[in-house]
Write a structure and sequence with these properties.
- The chain has about 90 residues and is an alpha+beta fold.
- About 55% of the residues lie in helices and about 20% in strands.
- Strand 1 and strand 2 form a beta hairpin.
- Helix 2 runs antiparallel to helix 3.
- It is elongated.
Length: about 90
């Protein structure tokens, strides 16, 4: 995979010069990496949905309930994984 950042010569509506980021893949050799990049938005959506589901378990289950406790532990570890990779979820 090659990552290129190319300055764009045109001006935006705010008067600032815009840049472009380009990902290039050698297909078919890098087809798995290509699919990962293409599906990144879908994966982020799934992760957000999972976080919302776990949040609901913690928020709406009774205190001391096993589902709330498990949901809280899983959600805590989930966010630790996200932060380890410096991923911006929102």
């Amino acid at each position: 995979m090659i990552l290129k950042e190319r300055p764009q010569t045109g001006m935006s509506t705010l008067g600032a010069v815009m840049s472009k980021g380009i990902l290039e893949f050698d297909l078919p050799e890098e087809s798995e990496e290509f699919e990962t990049a293409v599906k990144a938005g879908d994966l982020q959506c799934v992760l957000q949905n999972m976080d919302n589901y776990l949040r609901g378990l913690v928020k709406y289950e009774s205190e001391g309930d096993i589902m709330a406790e498990c949901g809280d532990k899983i959600r805590t570890r989930f966010w630790a994984f996200i932060q380890e990779r410096s991923i911006n979820m929102w």
